[in-house]
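User: Continuing from earlier, I have the next pair ready.

Assistant: Great, send them over.

User: Here they are, in order.

Assistant: Folding the first of the pair now:
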Amino acid sequence: MAAGPISERNQDATVYVGGLDEKVSEPLLWELFLQAGPVVNTHMPKDRVTGQHQGYGFVEFLSEEDADYAIKIMNMIKLYGKPIRVNKASAHNKNLDVGANIFIGNLDPEIDEKLLYDTFSAFGVILQTPKIMRDPDTGNSKGYAFINFASFDASDAAIEAMNGQYLCNRPITVSYAFKKDSKGERHGSAAERLLAAQNPLSQADRPHQLFADAPPPPSAPNPVVSSLGSGLPPPGMSQMQLAHHGPHGLGHPHAGPPGSGGQPPPRPPPGMPHPGPPPMGMPPRGPPFGSPMGHPGPMPPHGMRGPPPLMPPHGYTGPPRPPPYGYQRGPLPPPRPTPRPPVPPRGPLRGPLPQ
C-alpha cells in the first residue's frame, strides 16, 4: 500500500488527508477511501524518531474524477471522533508555505518532533512535521525549530500563548520566522495574510460547502397550511371542520372552556335570518341550545345579531317535562283519621215528656 516516489504519482488523482488520529493506519485509510472509488495506493509519512505517522497522509485514486468525488463526500467527516480534512494533493504541495511559519528558540536538547507536534497542534492545523534543526554529524538538536501552520489564526494563537512559556524546564521563545532570501523581513505581514485568506488551505478547517453552508432545499408550499393561514378551508375540509380545528390546528379562538366541547355556534344556512334582539322589557336570551350550564356562548360582534340555536339531534324530544298538576312522586302518605259523627240512639223517637 505504500506509495512509490512522489514523481511517479498522479498528483491530480491524489488527495491529501489531514487531521488523522494516531489509531489510523494505512489499511484503514485504504478501506475508508475505497468507498469513494478505486484506490491505487496510500502513504502516511512516519516520524523518524517515534515511527508514528504525523497525522496526515496521501491517497491516490485511479482517476481524477474519483479524487474529486472523495473530496466532496469525505472532507470533514469524523474518524475516531476527529474531523479529517481532504483536499487535492497538488494544491497542498503548491501552496504548502502560506506564510504562517513560526520560529521556536531555546529548546531543550531532549525535545523531539513529536513533543513539538503534540504541543503546538492544539492551536491549529500543522501542515508538516515540525522541523528541529540538528547537527548533520551527530544528529543533536541545535536548540531551535520551525513549525508551519495552515492559517495565521493558529500561528497568532501559538505565539501569544507559548512565547516565554517553559517547555522541559526551559523558557522558549516563539515568534514569526524570517523569510528566505530576505533581509530581516519576517512572515506574518499584511500581504501574506491577504494571500493566505485566498489560499485553498485556509479553508481546510471549514466543513465542505455541500454539507455545512448550503441552505435548506426549497420545499413546495403545503396547500393545507396555506389554506388554513388564509382562513379558507383546504381541499377535503368543510367550513364546520375548519371552524372546529381553527388555523394551524390550534382550535377556534372563540371556543368555549374545556369540557364544553370547544365548538362555537354554527353559522345559519344561507337565506335564514338571524334571530333579532329580545323585545323591550324582556330578559335577554339564554345561551344557545347545547351550551353547558354556566358557560354562555360567545358574544357576537357589535352590530351583528346572535346565531340561531342549534337543531336538536334526531329523536331528541327536548328536556324532561314537569309532572301533571296534582301528581306526587314517591309513596303516598297514609290517610289521616277523621272523627265520625255521633250515632243517634236506636228506637222510636219520643217527644217531650208531659209536665
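And the other member of the pair:
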Amino acid sequence: MELATGTRRPRNVDWKRAAALLYGDWGTSKAYVVGIAFSISMYHSFWLVLAVGLLTMVVGINYMWVCKHFPEGGGVYSSAKAQSRYLALVGAFLLVADYVVTASLSCYDAFLYLGLGFEDAKTWAILTIFIIGVLNFFGPRHSGTLAVVFAVATVVVMGLLALACLPHLPAALANVERPARPPMEWWVAFTGVILALSGVESIANMTGVMQLDPGSSPAQPQVGITARKAILPVMIEVCVLTVLFGLATHAIPNLDAHKYAGNMLRHLGEVFVDEPLAGLTGWGWLQGKTLFAWVVSLVLAGLLLSAVNTAMGALVSLIYMLCKDGEMPPTFGMLNRFGVPWIVLLIAMFAPILVIDVQRGENALHGLAAMYGIGVVGAIAVNLGSSAFNFQLPMRRRERTIMMITFLVVAAIEITIAITKPAALVFAVVVIGLGFLARSLHKGFPIHLPGPVRRVAETMFPKAVARRRASLSAEEMQALWTRQLGTERPVGAIMVAARGVTPTLRYAVEQARVHNAQLFVLFVRELYTTIPVPMIEEEDEEAQAVFQAVRSIARDVPVTTIYAVSNDPAWAILDHAALAGVDMLILGHSRRGALTRLLRGDLMQQVAAHLPEEICLIIVG
C-alpha cells in the first residue's frame, strides 16, 4: 500500500510574520534612498523622493492584486510563465540580478551606517557575505526570527526619529527649491532613486507559505486577504517615512551632498535628537556622544545584514526552483546533508562578493544603486506586464487598467536605466546571458567544453547518497518500549521517519510485526528554500531506495509509504503522525554536532515538545 502525499509545504506564515519578513527587505530602502536622492539633487531632492514614494504606493497596490491571483508563490517566474516560458526566464534572471545586488548593497551600506569609510566598508562587506554564506550551508532555522526582531526594532526607532523630525518640517519646506532642470534630466534623476521599489517582489514569492484566507482550502488556495494585510502597513510605513525623511534633510543648512549619502538617517538622528538633547539643562554629558545616532545605526545595520541573508536565501530558492522546473542543470539541485542546494549557495555567496569588489571608492554606492535598479525594476515590469495582459486572470477592469499603466511607467524606467547606466546594462546582460547559457547546456544545445574542463566537472559533481546509522539494538529498544508504553496498551499503527535502511527502520518493522500493526514509513526530503518547490517522489533516488528496501524486509507487514518535502522536518513528522493516527512514533537518534544543533535546532526536542500525549515516542540510537 502506498500513500501519495505530494509536496505540501506548511502554510504557517500569518500576515503579521509575512509583514515583518517583507519589512526586512522592503523596509531597508529608506536607509539609502534618502541619502542617494540628496546626493543627486540636494535641496531639490524632495520632489524626487515624493515621486518615488507615490510610485512605490501604486506598485504596492498592484502587488496586492498579483498575490491574490498567484497564491502558490514563485513571484515573477510564476506570473510570466503563464504567458511565455522565455519571458518567465528573463524575469527570473532579472530577479537573480536583483538578489545579487541586494546582498551587495545592503551589506555595504550596513557598514557605512556603522561609521566605516568606503574602502573599509567594502572589505568588511565582503567578509560578512562570506560568513553569512557559510552559516547558510547549515540551513539555519533562526534567521527568519532574527529578521522579525530587527524589523520590529527598526519600526520603533524609525518612529522615534520621525517624531523628532516633525518640528523641523516647516523649516524644511521653506528650504525646498523648485525643480530647475529640464524634464528629461529630472526623469533620469528620478530613475536613479527608484530603489524604494526594492523588496516588494519578495511578497509575491511568499504567498506559497502564507496562511490561507478563511473559507479557502489547500485544493483551491486563496491568500488575497493575508497578502493585503501584510503589504498595507509595510507600504504605508515605507512610503510615508521615506518622504518624511527626504523632506527633513532640507531642514539642515549647508548639508554636504555626498558625505552622508550612505548613512543619511544616522545623520538625521544626530542633528534632530542628539544635538537638542545635549543642549538641555542637565544633559550636557551627552555632548558629542551621538547615542541616538548609534541606535539608528545599529538597528539599520542589523536590518540590512538580515536583508543580506534573506536575499541569499531567496536567490538559492529561485535558482533551485528553476532547476526543479527543468530549466537549469540538475547539478544545481544537489542538496547537502542539511537540505541546502550547496552549488547554488556558492553562487549566492561569491556573486555578491564579486559585485562589491569591482566597485571603487565614493562611487561604489551609486554604482550598486544603478545595478540594483535595473534588476528590481525589470523584474517588477515583467511581473506586472505578464499579469496585466493575462486575460485569463479574473481581474477587475479597474485593476487591470491601473496595472497596465503602472507597467508602462515601470518599463519606461527600466529602459531609461538601461540607456543611461551602461554598467548596469552590462551587468543585467551578463546575468541573463549566463542564465540562458546554463539552460542551453542543460537543454541539449551542445557547447563543447575542452576535455580537461569536462573531466574536472564530471569529477566534482558525482551523485552522492548519505545514509545514517543508529546504534541501539532492537532488544534494548524492546525493553525501552516495555518501560515507556507498557505491554497492555494495544498498538494499531506505528510510524517511522526513515532516511535510509538503518537499524531504526528494521526495528520499526519488527515492532509492527510483533504488534500486528500498520507501519507508516515516512521519508521527509528536507529542503531549505524560501519558495515552495515541487519535487517528484519517483525522481528522489534516496527515497525510492528506502521504500523498496522496506517492502522487501516487511513482506508480512502492512506498509504505507509516505513521501513529504518540507523545510521543517519536525513539523512534517508531527503533521503526518497526527494525520495517520499512529500510536507509536520511532525516530533515529540525531548525529548532528553541537554547532549544527545550534544553527538548525534539535529535531528530537522539537518533536517531543509538540507530540500529542497519546503517541509514544521511541528514539533509536
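Worth noting for the second one:
Residues 1-7, 456-478, 483-489 have pLDDT under 50 and may be disordered. The chain has 24 helices and six strands.
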